[in-house]
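Exercise 7. Predict the joint structure of the components listed below.
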Amino acid sequence: MKGRMISPGKAKGVAIVSKEPIGFYGSFDIKTGKMIEKGHPLEGKNIKDKILVFPCGKGSTVGSYVIYGLKKNNAAPAGIINKETETIVATGVILAGIPCVDKIDIDKIKDGDTIVLDADKGDVEIVKK
Amino acid sequence: MYLTKEEEKILDGSGGEVPERMLRLLVRLGEIYGADKMIPVGSVQVAGVSYKSIADPGTEYLEDIAKQGAKVKVLTFLNPAGMDLENWEKLGFPKDFAKNQLRIMNAFKSMGIVITSTCTPYLAGNLPRFREHIAWSESSAVCFSNSVIGARTNREGGPSALAAAIIGKTPNYGFHIWENRQPHFHIKVDAELKYSSDFGALGYFVGKQVKDKNPYFTGIKDADTDQLKALGAAMAASGAVAMYHVEGLTPEADLVKKDKLETINFGKKELEETYAKLNTCKDPDIVILGCPHASLREISTLAEKLKGKRLKKPIWICTSRMMKEAADRMGYTGIIEKAGGSIVADTCMVVSPIENMGYKVTGVNSGKAANYLPGFCKQGVVFANIDKLIEVQS
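Solution:
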């Protein structure tokens, strides 16, 4: 699949998919990458080194800094794939240097798929289902 | 988006990692919003200053890029901090909060940012000209500079404003472009507006309805800059208004197209209903004025009312350090303190941790403060004009 580069870089990893938007501020343990938002479909799961797939961001603009903090603590996803990246996530992945692509049909990606992400070209490849 | 050779070089990383990421952020935001190119900015005002707002992740980010040698290219001011940077101890701000707040200020200072901390930069030494492109963050300052001064800025987030300061440019979209400065709504005002709080009520009412669109006001016969400041601040808080026009008063009002506007009426009834709606409590524990930061005229007005009196409840009036300095010299500070009040500089009630300082109900004359205090600071609100808020001992 081909999308739009938001932040450059390449990554390979296992997909963790959320159908719901993600607000980063207050939703993650910044030291470990564990999702802690009550009632969120990803609650209790860890995003560290995964390819995090979700439709778009939501919530506080401090979320950008949380994405940066996750990266600094080595607890960030290896890459991010969105349907539509809005400014909070765009700002976060660029500050942190996390490869990110949007304008992808995320319904085609399932939890556990192995993904190769080449953000420089905007390419998303599902290599193993 | 068109980029110059010089801009492409920065994106290649030849100017270092910080400028590369800063420009990448601006270009990407520009693409998301349909900008055609980057344009130079005359000045910047950066939000995301209070430790209460940005917490540890924001603080560490700012320290990291300061350490990497980030420097701003244009005159850059800051939004209010979470405390008075000089009198925090005396005013009862918590020590651990202060420690983190000072880390943030040091990081900004080492980037060459003027650590002014005010939502009224235009009163404190950062005054853009008519039609100057700027990148400001604080919503009331954005609204004032677009509307009353006629400068041009979008509502920047903290990181995008900081990026604009480091690169000296911003993407060309939104309020930088003349077409987007045209009005969408005609607000017919038929009520006597005397106090700043009346303008705040009008702003709160209009912002709720027009959301992020531009209102054009008629029927406001006169208003000073303090009243226009209150009007814009309330609209920017209850809605997301970044620009308004007032017939006969603001510089672009005569120039914009005024056909096909949707009409909204605001009369005595709407004014009274808005006051009633914004009052959630009675009997404030504290009265806080200066949202947005008080001008010298507003401070002198308060001093005049408090001369020789003794207050029943404490009053804070929040302002910039520059206004405080002038108030000290003129003896206004002395009069206000003698009556049992305080002039608080560098911070404001919305971004300071007042909920942890023992206050539960706050009296305000600001539509913006009345909008934010219940959520951000878990406060009950008494919204009234300054004369009703001042209670003196007999």
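Discussion. The first strand of chain A starts at residue 4 and ends at 7.
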